[in-house]
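Give me structure tokens for this 213-residue protein.
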Amino acid sequence: MYNKAYSSRLEEFKSLAPEAFAAFIAFDNEALAPGKLQPKLKELIAVAVAHTTGCPYCIEQHVNQAKKQGAKKEEVAEAILVATALKAGSAIAHSVNAWNAYDENGEDELYKSSYFRRLEEMKTYTEDTFQKFLSFDQAALQTGALTVKEKELIAIAVAHTTGCPYCIELHTAAVKVAGACREEVAESLLVATALKAESALAHGVNALNAYDQ
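Here you go.
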């Protein structure tokens, strides 16, 4: 169902929905253009988000683009591991909602910052596994080939892709501490927006293949 050659069918959307397709391409190009963030970091953010959406066409395209922009394999690997940590983090963060549901706390509001304090309860039930996750999460966000600031800009993009409100709040605070300005954060989020949209459009080639059967 997934061959590299299928991506050539994206051009068909030019004639099938010309105005919307042109508007998307203009937005996508602008989101990945140089701004406060340089193209290499934007492409690394794109690679991380592509691994979060799981789009093989996007992974192929943006790994190639990151390489063209001078990204080393180590930088690509670290971006992917930040995405891995954030996607896993989204799952474990929602355990606080599981405890609320299990305990039948009766709260009507499903998301509150205060709920996040219940994360520590995971230690009570699965201490070894929980500690190993925390160790991985911390290691993934430490300075390596990428700086902490770069990793947090990747993290906040992925957090908006997974839609985890706890992760968004946590990593917005962390990226601010790491020295990112509002414009850099905004550009990171718009790369995430473009990549989530790219994933939907890229899978359109599979829809065309299915329709033509």
